[in-house]
Amino acid sequence: MTEARRGAATLEDVAREAGVSLATASRAVNGSTRNVRPEIRERVERAARALNYTANAQAQAMARGRTNVVGLVVQDIEDPYFSSIAAGAMRVAEANRLIVSIASTQRRPDKEIEYVASLRGLRAAAIVIAGSRTDDREALGRLGEELAAFERSGGRVALISQRRLPVDTVVVANRAGARDLAARLAGLGYRRFGVLAGPPGLLTAADRLDGFAEGLAAAGLSVPPDAVARGDFNRDGGHAAMLRLLDHGPRVECVFAVNDVMAVGAIAALRSRGLDRGVAVAGFDDIVTLRDVTPALTTVRLPLVEIGEAALRMVLSEPAARPRSRRIQGEVVVRESTPGVPSR
Amino acid sequence: MTEARRGAATLEDVAREAGVSLATASRAVNGSTRNVRPEIRERVERAARALNYTANAQAQAMARGRTNVVGLVVQDIEDPYFSSIAAGAMRVAEANRLIVSIASTQRRPDKEIEYVASLRGLRAAAIVIAGSRTDDREALGRLGEELAAFERSGGRVALISQRRLPVDTVVVANRAGARDLAARLAGLGYRRFGVLAGPPGLLTAADRLDGFAEGLAAAGLSVPPDAVARGDFNRDGGHAAMLRLLDHGPRVECVFAVNDVMAVGAIAALRSRGLDRGVAVAGFDDIVTLRDVTPALTTVRLPLVEIGEAALRMVLSEPAARPRSRRIQGEVVVRESTPGVPSR
DNA sequence: CCATGAGCGGAAAGCGCTTTCCCAAACGAG
DNA sequence: CTCGTTTGGGAAAGCGCTTTCCGCTCATGG
């Protein structure tokens, strides 16, 4: 009846308490293909309860040769983009009784590799990586090797929005979304555009910029090179880039920030110059927490939670012969931040 | 030279490749108090590299009797309040080479208990629980038992903002923060207050409400009972509560929403009625992502990242004889959402 | 009434490590 | 030169499970 004085109760304690063998206790309490007579099972279960027994997951993992841990690697858990993806992945994990191990790389590619190695050490069942999108080929190569080693040792991998490695991928249609957005903005009558682009090397940002340019081109418009201001992929980056554009760029009617948090920074910058009603701003992502900023942001809605779900589902499904990819579309949402140009 | 065809390379493979015993390989590659001759160490390390060996963390955990996993239980990772806390905890975890396992309970107390059990099974070194603040005594009791079992089996526990269980706690000064906020708002000339309170049973919300009432009382003011509208602890809850207050409550000059996301919902509600400049709104938390809403929110700044850091540090430090608590203060930040009453 | 096999409990092997214990060699002191 | 003492490699004992294999009991059928 008394709990082990040192450390947790083991299955052996339970077996002894119930007066059965270790094998039987294991079968009764932790499941097995084999049957155990109801009467004995009941006795074991009672013993387990009395001792407050919980199976040692490590030992189970060792014995079974697989774990119920999945790894999730994001760039910055504090960024709502990633926390929404994480929420989706965690929801699916919960439904499958998986434990999720998470790491935030703070955008350092070397950390990413380190975490994958660490998850390989944990013998995680699967890894989902969100947002590894540099064009640093050297880092990408090492990440690829590390992931390949992980897969060879029996793990599964999925990437979010990163087609550059031969593994399952949830592809976010950044380019297409930005193209659609450009078309809509052109339709609203804007002609003189600026773009607040992300830092060089960030592929997500680059795709959105390219898509936007394509969309404008289709409408016979374009973004003059000096109307593209680069900044960090966060609020302050948007703020700074907007100010730079105002001070050194051409006059613009409408600014596309490659994500919502940058757009919010841009609006703050415009407001500080008293221009917040003079220049239209559009973003990308449709971050939930930002749906109430004023003016309400025109943006491309990405189903972030779904993206997280899709990635984990992919990695949990039967492995395919070749890397699969699941494409997820964004949807343009026009709100007050781009009221349109009435005169045209 | 060739990697094991099935599964990952084991330490035994490395030992064989290097021509040493398992014991020596272990000492050379995974550290030990014992020395290994540099020449042999080098040989083992080379073999490990050649085989792309990574120690099986499960096996190490078994053999050593401890893991490098810490568990983090939050209510909703998508909520910026929790994602900031998680970021802080993860930062400290990284510095200590710990792996963090995270779970989002979606505010279901039973899930919380389930996850703790699960972490006990993992033999996690420590658990941090953020935001278990119901007054459901039954659930709290079961959680307490589960945590006690975890501690008896050698794990450490810290709670964030929950003094009701005898474990280490990071106490957030909700009450004091709300009290200070009330004092400042009274100082700004407001007299007729409303409160958008959280759901009944949520202690964080209750503390903030109580503190606010105390602060007003100190200034000879009060919140009439019918000016307290309850709502969920999220944006929509704030929105709905605000509308209810407008429609069924007394006229108010200033509304205190018990957290920032509710405040944002409230502002949206006011705006939908054309009252956004007529009623002042204050929040609590100072969520980073919401710093650019307009009007800029008066709120109580909580150092959320620090709170997460403090909790994990606490749980990693030497265990104390009795539960410790570390108190963290908020700081009132007055912004445009409470411009003050000029006439007074 | 005996051969057959289904059903189920138990002994023991094994998962991949760490660590204790043992032992040989090298070394320093008397 | 002898006798402790280090020093460092290797054998083996676990860590807490799962699972294979073995063997006993009982039901079944020819």
Automatic annotation (TrEMBL), chains A, B:
<keyword id="KW-0804">Transcription</keyword>
<keyword id="KW-0805">Transcription regulation</keyword>
<dbReference type="InterPro" id="IPR000843">
    <property type="entry name" value="HTH_LacI"/>
</dbReference>
<dbReference type="InterPro" id="IPR010982">
    <property type="entry name" value="Lambda_DNA-bd_dom_sf"/>
</dbReference>
<dbReference type="InterPro" id="IPR028082">
    <property type="entry name" value="Peripla_BP_I"/>
</dbReference>
<keyword id="KW-0238">DNA-binding</keyword>
<protein>
    <submittedName>
        <fullName>LacI family transcriptional regulator</fullName>
    </submittedName>
</protein>
<dbReference type="InterPro" id="IPR046335">
    <property type="entry name" value="LacI/GalR-like_sensor"/>
</dbReference>
<feature type="domain" description="HTH lacI-type">
    <location>
        <begin position="9"/>
        <end position="64"/>
    </location>
</feature>
<dbReference type="Pfam" id="PF00356">
    <property type="entry name" value="LacI"/>
</dbReference>
<dbReference type="Pfam" id="PF13377">
    <property type="entry name" value="Peripla_BP_3"/>
</dbReference>
